[in-house]
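Q&A FORM
Asked by: J.P.
Topic: structure of Delta 8-(E)-sphingolipid desaturase

PROVIDED:
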Amino acid sequence: MDTSPAPARAKNVLSRREIEGRIADGQLIVILGTNVLKLDSWIDRHPGGDLAIKHMVGRDATDEVNALHSTKALRAMRAFQIGSVEDRWVNFTPPIQGGRFRRYYEEEDIIEDLNSDISSELSSRPPSPIFDTVEGEHGLRHRKSASTISSPPSPAPEPESSEPRFCVLDARTQQEILLDKAEYPPVDAEHQHNITLKYRALNKRIQQEGLYNCNYSAYGVEALRYSLLFSLFLFSLHHSQFALAGLFLGCFWHQLVFTAHDAGHMGITHDFTTDTTIGIIVADFIGGLSLGWWKRSHNVHHIMTNSPEHDPDIELMPFFAVSHRFFTNLHSTYYDRLMEFDIVAKTVVKYQHYLYYPILLFGRFNLYFLSYAHILSGLNPRNKKQGPLWPRYLELAGQLFFWSWFGYGICYLSIPTWTSRIIFVLISHCVTAPLHVQITLSHYGMSTADLGVHESFAQKMLRTTMDVDCAPWLDFVHGGLQFQAIHHLYPRIPRHNLRRAQVLVREFCADVEIPYAIFTFVDGNRKVLGRLGDVAQQARIFEEGRREAAQEVLSGHHHHHGHGHKHDH
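REPLIED BY: S.T.
REPLY: Here is the structure written out as tokens.
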């Protein structure tokens, strides 16, 4: 898609150093193509939430923005352009991820601008380059004289092995990075730029083949399926078959989620207002879940996939840890709090591979909690509003409608006894568990390593996401979620076209030598359980290590005390 600047606009070329200074002053600067966008005035109105923008500050966000926005939205973004860059952009680490930035002092920095080669290398070291220290090596400036900024919620990580008790975990992190580097193309600028160009060429091919055009007749079939399941639910309810009624209602909700997912990605009409309205009717009015909550978390998930600190989809403490890095009380930038590896987490994580399916049976109840927290926080005037306000009020109406028909109309009026009500609610909610398995399947077994800010969007998506191989006649059961790798590359492709897009994506992967992860449903489950089992074992080893270290410290302390006592005599 065209992200070139509007021809009428004069080219105000900004240097890398000047952009760094603007970010140090707190400006939200994002690179799109060769354009420099300043998004400060837009962040509170962004329908995808503020965090999706904050994770792109100082980065070339061309692929992420194109993947998640309509052509109309891309055109609207030109209003935020403040200049352009001449050379291919080299990413900074965003402040929210711990990046540090120097203020821009014009007189001091004129000499540095002349020597831009050095400054173009500044952000080349993951996980969190501290630019001033790097420049100290080049003899340009010492750290203490530079004014720096970093985002308060997520301080830059300490250098590796700063705490002896975490050295085992650091070694493990390093090992995972090395394994990924051995399996995937190098993360140097040339390799990644080549992957990016081919990824964009593939997008053009997908457009030419009409794969972005929604197949509305497929939705006709969906509507028939929904109607059949809802009719069976009403029929069973009428005949006082409450367990059976719960089963059919659960299947109905399970199917509906796929359409809400399509609408959330503007994959039905490609129009924000229309698709948001469809999504809210399906998710809130009929399903009782918040589309707005899902969009805010899902957009971050799509750009920070499988990142323990940043991706809310894998931040499930104290129930699951998909990486050993959760043992270190990580700070979540999404929830803006510490995910403590507390006594509950320590106990549950050790057995998480056994608890995986039982916990997922109750997944829908957790979604209610997250939905209400989102809707209520958005209606609080003290809170910065996230995106336009009308969806919040429509969602609130949707929740009232849902609890009127489901809570009062069905559970209270139509079911006579409390035993039957509990059975009905549990069955209808637990039947949706395969959906939670499907969602977690695509990512839990894949890499959580951070290969740094230079990794291309396409490679990161394919490295952190797997597809599920199934027969075409089973597609309706998986609802398009079995093509997660393809969906992560091109989120706005309507789900009924994903199987056709798979052929093109396989060719692309072979061409750029990126492994395309695809497993059968059974093997995928095995891989996820294997990963959860590995992390559970690491949790046990980590706990033993800490216990031994504590005993050593205590015995050493005791020995030292005894020794000192003799000396006094």
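FOLLOW-UP: Residues 193-512 form one domain.
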